[in-house]
Design brief:
185 residues; alpha/beta; Rossmann fold; two-stranded antiparallel sheet; 7 helices; 7 strands; binds adenosine-5'-diphosphate; binds 6-phosphogluconic acid; nucleotide-binding
Length: 185
């Protein structure tokens, strides 16, 4: 595949997406987006009450993130996105948009090709015990640790032909960033 214009750092809540994503973006000089900042208020309230999000809750959020990625990458801006992206279909939306359609109509009705976002997917993997231990210590976040089991239940780890690597959260964030940067070379 062509060199990725974007890196998706994915995984369950507490796997270190925000920490690793921000550090990676700063090392690369790329723009950083944290998908948590793009949840509508209803999604935050739902998670805050300990209710897992449904596909219906997540799809508009992912479509919005796809549009942001596509706009930036099309303008030559490289980006790092930290986003749970737990299911394959969610990652497909980030890459292609909701319909995965190769064509879209502009305002004048003309059809034009939509570009896929070339993504390197970085899956941060770890045991329930390690990650729940980190979540229990994390302060000031809307996501309650009780939702972690549902995140593991929902998780579909990336697999071929996705363009992905897996890195253990047992490594520290700097080590993880070095591995990702080596992969991008
Ligand atoms: N590789 C790591 N090793 C040790 N602690 C980590 C690591 N990555 C993240 N953390 C800590 O774990 C907690 C969850 O990390 P965070 O980046 O908020 O995860 P996520 O964005 O996936 O929910 C934070 O308190 C963070 O400082
Ligand atoms: O799809 C989801 O259910 C949410 O996006 C969830 O996966 C995400 O993890 C939350 O936004 C909590 O934020 P943290 O991942 O930072 O805990």
């Amino acid at each position: 595949m062509a060199a990725p214009g974007a890196v998706l750092v994915m995984g369950v809540s507490g796997s270190g997406k925000s920490t690793v994503g921000a550090l990676l973006a700063s090392e690369l000089g790329w723009k950083f987006y944290d998908a948590d900042d793009y949840h509508p208020e209803e999604n935050r309230q739902k998670m805050g009450k300990g209710i897992p999000l449904s596909d219906q809750d997540r799809i508009p959020w992912l479509c919005n993130l796809h549009d942001i990625l596509q706009r930036d990458v099309a303008s030559g801006q490289h980006v790092v996105l930290a986003c749970s992206a737990l299911k394959k279909v969610y990652r497909d939306i980030l890459i292609q948009g909701k319909d995965g359609a190769p064509l879209k109509r502009d305002e004048s009705g003309k059809e034009e090709k939509t570009a896929e976002v070339k993504l390197l997917v970085v899956h941060l993997t770890g045991s329930f015990e390690v990650i729940s231990g980190r979540l229990l210590k994390r302060k000031g976040h809307f996501m309650p640790p009780e939702l972690l089991q549902s995140q593991f239940n929902t998780l579909e780890p990336p697999s071929a032909p996705e363009n992905f690597i897996q890195i253990s959260v047992d490594k520290n964030p700097s080590e993880i960033v070095v591995i990702i940067m080596e992969t991008l070379k």
